[in-house]
Design brief:
The chain contains eleven helices and eight strands. The chain is an alpha/beta fold. Helix 5 packs parallel to helix 6. It binds NADP nicotinamide-adenine-dinucleotide phosphate (NAP). InterPro entries: NAD(P)-bd_dom_sf, SDR_fam.
């Protein structure tokens, strides 16, 4: 790794020369890099995978359904000639599935020894009306959107830190949401045991995700682990404004019509994915930052400020400790720093 002063100078240089606009079809060359995307069979995860593959990256498409993964794999190969992709079965609401998937990545899935970034994208957007729990008793929305990714990131931390080089610090990107600004959601009853509401479950889970993403970066720096943590959100990205892709996005005529009425405030998932991909690959971005569309719900990726609650140090620390307790997982910071030679 470069000494800190050199790295800052390099980043200044890159920033000064970085194009002001971000064109998802003209990313910095990603040849030789490997990225893992959760929930890659549909929506933002699929389109992020396409953008990365088009730029030359090797992309691990992960998802919980073998059939949907196969369809996404076929679609991506058809739309991006020469794409380098593989699939990985991974249900982020199931700890056993996370551990098994992470073990195959650590074991050098398809002989690839490096992992340059992880997009922690999978999520339940249309949350259940009634409170549901996972097999190990965790509230389903929290478990899927936040806890599963907390465990996955921990499981992949040493693989990421081993992949750090003089020119690239591996990254994890967490999926936040602009909904975290709409109300003061401080997740004290983190599993909504005292009262469940579908919308609250979503927003709380996203406050947790954002807090984890920001806190992870602080802890990674403190421990000297060469991995960055960034939070990004896609604004308001909807299927009916998104290109049809067989087996991946096939909205009905009614959905196209309905979503078309929201055109002034919405964008396609393909465009929404741009903020996530920029957060994952732009060398001018550093850990702890928050990225999203320029007009909040749509537009080009820009740097923004996260909601006050999710960036509050006390809230972050409380959420981190609660996630450690609920998942039974502590991040292997010391080992990750050691394997990177720190
Ligand atoms: N769209 C927006 O405007 C918006 C705004 C803010 C944040 N976000 C966030 O962006 C992410 C993606 O949203 P999207 O709009 O692309 O949603 P989407 O089209 O519904 O896609 C969600 C993806 O997550 C996967 N998923 C759900 N539960 C899973 C599990 N237990 N294990 C593995 N994969 C699972 C889904 O797989 P299946 O097909 O198997 O269900 C699907 O691939 C979410 O985290 C969401 O909260 C979206």
């Amino acid at each position: 790794m470069l000494p800190k002063a050199c790295r800052s100078a390099y980043l200044r240089l890159v920033t000064e020369h970085a194009p002001r606009s971000w064109d998802p079809a003209r990313l910095p060359d990603q040849t030789g890099r490997t990225y893992l995307i959760t929930g890659a069979n549909a929506g933002l995860g699929y389109f992020a995978s396409e953008q990365l593959a088009r730029a030359g990256a090797h992309v691990i498409l992960s998802g919980r359904s073998p059939n949907k993964l196969a369809a996404a794999h076929d679609a991506l190969e058809a739309r991006v000639p020469d794409a380098s992709v593989q699939t990985l079965l991974l249900d982020v609401s199931n700890t056993g599935s996370i551990r098994a998937a992470a073990a195959s990545v650590r074991g050098g899935l398809f002989k690839r020894q490096r992992l340059d970034g992880v997009l922690l994208n999978a999520g339940i957007v249309h949350t259940p009306r009634q409170r549901e729990t996972t097999r190990d008793g965790r509230e389903l929305v929290l478990a899927t959107n936040a806890l599963g990714h907390f465990v996955l990131a921990a499981e992949l931390l040493t693989t990421l830190s081993k992949s750090a080089s003089r020119t690239w610090t591996p990254r994890m990107v967490w999926l936040g949401s602009m909904s975290t600004r709409m109300g003061a959601y401080d997740p004290v009853d983190i599993q909504l045991e005292r009262g469940y509401h579908a919308y609250r479950a979503y927003v709380q889970s996203k406050v947790v995700v954002q807090a984890l993403g920001i806190e992870a970066d602080v802890r990674l720096r403190d421990a000297g682990v060469p991995v960055e943590s960034v939070v990004a959100h896609p604004g308001y990205s909807i299927g009916g404004r998104t290109p049809r892709v067989q087996g991946v996005n096939e909205p009905s005529a009614w959905k196209r019509f309905k979503d078309g009425l929201q055109a002034p405030i919405a964008q396609s998932k393909e465009r929404g994915a741009a903020s996530l991909v920029r957060a994952l690959v732009d060398p001018a971005i550093t850990g702890g930052e928050y990225w999203g569309p320029r007009l909040i719900t749509r537009g080009e990726p820009t740097r923004q400020q996260p909601s006050r609650t999710s960036s509050d140090p006390e809230v972050r620390q409380r959420i981190w400790e609660t996630c450690e307790r609920l998942s039974g997982m502590e991040w292997p910071f010391a080992r990750a720093a050691r394997v990177a030679g720190r």
